[in-house]
DNA sequence: GATCGATGTTGACACTGGCAACATTGACGA
DNA sequence: TCGTCAATGTTGCCAGTGTCAACATCGATC
């Protein structure tokens, strides 16, 4: 058994990327707690401690993985907004796009629970992502995408301008709450049909809570 | 230095309670990740492994601590509901109580962030708390308290009966979402005044989203 | 061709969860 | 009275983790 294993070169070449890929894979399967330096290094084909040449500590690796997961969320939201059914009535179209955004958020939480949890597991001490981080193809993050939908609602007259300030908080909270309750929390075992009912209820309340009132 | 340390008895006597107290204290300071068997045992004045006589493993201890934290949340909600301002108009009173409930939820998340995170950090594999667990003085958990408020809204005519099914999801999600975003998530550094604005916006959308529409 | 900085490796330490074997104590029955 | 035993607590150990320090390799650059 001499020379059986082809000796890989001493230097990996793209270890940083490999560590990130491994971290993202771990996060997908088991959530943010599983993003562990030694495991990532193993999967990347390097020995532990190699990671320290690319990340100051475990938190820095985790933060980078979180940012990637946030990008994935933003990307799905972009896709679902683009695919929202168009309606002759611009008001109806605008509501449909907001609904598609909310649906995408919850869809991500249920189909990729590990990624969803990781996206929001940014280590303490780190502030939110800097501009340009955690964004989708359009360069916008989930928050930006939501704000754009709300601005559109005001523009087409679906929502009163007085209601606009603070509306992000309400819409975001409602959808984020359902997503976490279903993904992580007490509603984690809710059957799919009931989950759909819950989502409808949430979107309905947001729509009627935000809409221009006579 | 002979006989300086008063030797505590070999058997602790109430180790289970002491472990729980230590766990709750750790959770309060640093959240659920800090609920660690060895630290709890140290703080309780026993050596590691003593804990295994009372909890099968770390998850079982954590679960018991989570349940205590949920009780604390339920208790605060009960208090704030009871203290809600009464109004001659029963409809207004009912809304005030729902608002007090939502406020209490977010208040708990901001004033006791460790406990709040722990309340919802029930280990995977465990289902929600059994009936009678995680409840306040009235024997009701947060979900029960919310359902009672919504039933009351229907009863006094503030909310249409058709809107009642699924309303828990919407109300709970909205408040839970804000609480986690502010406690744990991207809004964790929101200044207090802005947080208050966000809370108002959330409560407002819930109210107008749920209310009987002409 | 020698030097040096960037990158990877090996070895060590302290911490955790968890298993096994042993120690202490109080209750209970012969 | 005394021996037995189950409940409870302890010491010792192992694997896995983050992190520091010392050493190894390699490519670019003078």
Architecture overview:
The structure is a homodimer of 214-residue chains. Chain A is mostly helical and 214 residues long. Chain A is built from eight helices and no strands. In chain A, helix 6 (142-155) crosses helix 7 (167-183). The A-B interface holds A 120, 122, 127-128, 143, 165-167, 169-181, 184-187, 189, 197-198, 200-202, 204-210, 213 and B 120, 122, 127-128, 143, 165-167, 169-181, 184-187, 189, 197-198, 200-202, 204-210, 213. Chain A binds a DNA duplex (30 and 30 nucleotides) through residues 9-12, 15, 36-39, 46-50, 52-54, 57-58.
If helices are DSSP runs of H or I spanning 4 or more residues, what is the number of helices of chain A?
A: 8
How much of the sequence lies in strands of chain A comes to under 5%
Strand-pairing-aware structural class of chain A: mainly alpha
* Cα-atom radius of gyration of chain A: 21 Å
Largest sheet of chain A: none
* H-E string of chain A: HHHHHHHH
Distance between the ends of chain A: 83 Å
Percent of residues of chain A in helical segments? 55-70%
- The general outline of chain A is elongated
Summarize the structure.
The structure is a homodimer of 214-residue chains. By secondary structure, the first copy, chain A, is an all-alpha fold.
SSE arrangement:
Two copies of one chain form a homodimer.
Chain A: H1 15-30, H2 37-44, H3 58-82, H4 90-111, H5 113-119, H6 142-155, H7 167-183, H8 192-210
The first copy, chain A, binds a DNA duplex (30 and 30 nucleotides) through helix 2.
